Every structure is written in structure tokens, then in C-alpha cells.
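ARCHIVE CARD
Drawer: 12
Card no.: 0347
Subject: one protein chain, sequence and derived structure
Cross-reference: see card 0346
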Amino acid sequence: MPLTVAILGAGRWGQAHIRTLTSLKIEGLIKQLFVCDIDADKLTNLPLEIDATFSSWQEMVEYNSPDLVAIVTPPQTHCQLSIELMSQGIDVLVEKPLGFSETEAAAVLACSRRTGQSLSVGFLLRFHSGIQKAKALVASGLIGSLHHIDFVRHSTRKPPIGGDVIEALGVHAIDTVCSVQGEVEPHRLHISHLKTNQQGSPIQATMWLEFPGAIEANISVAWDSQIERRELNLIGEFGTILIDFNNHETIKLQNEEGQKIIATDFSTPPLEMEWRQLLSISHQQNNGKADLFPTAGATLRGARWIEQALSEVSSRIEQKQDNTSTAEGKQSNKVV
């Protein structure tokens, strides 16, 4: 039975959700489609398939409570909005990060268990056809034991106001390098490169993670990059698999026999794949039992390591400020 779906937040990424859901509504998979945003300008020039718009989620629920709401609002609102909507009997898809700490993420998961509402976190790369194919090939032993993982996500886009590249892009990277190994927990994380804006928010970062079995992952995420790069490189004892995030149809295998192009099992864009899965599972179909994606363990792991990365960022910034203050103090004490 088609569901009533709402998008909470009609900014840049919210518009991507709206375009995807509009197509799925035309296909007959959605009964009604609502959009909610506190900025009235963002509620103009929407597709004709949008049934109603609202300036608050409370107004929307009073009008006609949706079955499923996607929270595509600023990160600092994700935790509270998730709890409030699930408490109203609504299933939730919340964009990452779920919270700014493991404690916040745990509170949202607890609300899902308490209310019986389904909760999905927007780890979009889990739906990428190339990554799914590569994960299966690694598990099959095609490239032997995995030794190293390189994740690169460089965007030419200017940093959003108040944005943090680790929360926005690094969270996808950490989840991906853990999930391709079968949901492995890292041993430790270290930030080897960091660039911040004038407000102290990270806009470029390189992170190194160590996993069991001496497997290492190098993660490089950046805004305001000179070139656009979106790729994952899996390096094993017998070969390498390269995934281009912009390519949903093929991946590349490099081994002693040369380079081979391998077709993926599907070419549907990740956001559409994510929504098709969500629309196939409703609260009613689950008989009131909460459905979680990814698992609670994977969700908490992501929050835990992002929290650790941000803690190291804070320490580096404080150390830099202390060094600057010390240098300025020495300069002022010089006898002229």
C-alpha cells in the first residue's frame, strides 16, 4: 500500500530527495508527498506532484500525519527531530550525522525501540551498486586478504556556512571503510592533515584508521578542492578494486593479468535505491516492530568514531591556539 511521505528540509540535499520522491510518486509508490521548511522561499517552485507544504512539522502532523518523514535539516537538529517525530508515531529517515555524540545516537535508538517506529540513517554509500559489488568480491577472496583502503571525497563546492567536513563527508567514509570489511570496528584513528576556516570548522581533513589484521584505511575529505574526486580503492594481496562513486554500472579490477572492467548488479542511483527499500518496509508491515538501518551497532560505531575524530580536531585547534599565544608572548617580551 502506498505511503504518505514528507521531506523535512528543502535545501540543496532536500531538493535531491524531492526529485527522487517525485519520480517514485509518478510510479505509484507514494500516495501523498509533503514538503516542510521554515524558509518560505524554499517552498516555492516545487514539482506539481507535491500535495502540500508546511512551515513546521507540527502543522504538517495536524493536517495529515505522514507514515514516513525524511529529516534533511541542519545536523544539530537531527537528534531532537528524530525523537519528536517517532514519538508522534512516524517512521524516520534521518540524514547523517544522527547525533554529535554516541550518547545522542543512543538516545535516538532508544526512542525507536520504545515507540516501535522504524529508523533509518542516511548512509547513502551502502546503496551504491559499485560498493556493494566490490564488497561481495572482497568477501569471495578475489583480491586475497585486504591490506589497505583509500577513500577520497573531494568536492569543488564551497564549504557551507557552519559546515564541518568530517560530520558531512567523513561520516560516510568511516561507515564505508568499516562496512566493506564486514562491519569491523577500528582500533584507533588519527588525523594527519587538517585545514579549518576562520571559524575553526574543518573544511579539509585526512584521517588514518587502523583495523584488526593490520588493515589500514586512509580517508581524505575536502571542500573547496581544485578537482572533484569521489572514489574508493580496495587493495589486497592479489589485486586492487577501484570504485568511482559517479559510476553505477562498472568497477575496475587491477591484478597481475591487467585491468578488467566488472559490471555491477544494478545501475540505480543510491538515493533512489535507499527510498525503494524504505518504501517497501512500513510500520504496519512490521506489525509494530521497529526496523533499523543500519544495525544499532553500526550506527553507534559511526557516532563513536566521528565523536573521536572531532575530539582530536578540537585538541589540535586548542594546541595551535596555545602555540600562537606563546609565540606572541615571547615576541612582546623581547627587549628593543
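Annotation on reverse: The first strand starts at residue 3 and ends at 8. Helices lie at 12-26, 57-64, 78-87, 102-115, 129-140, 165-179, 270-279, 296-332.
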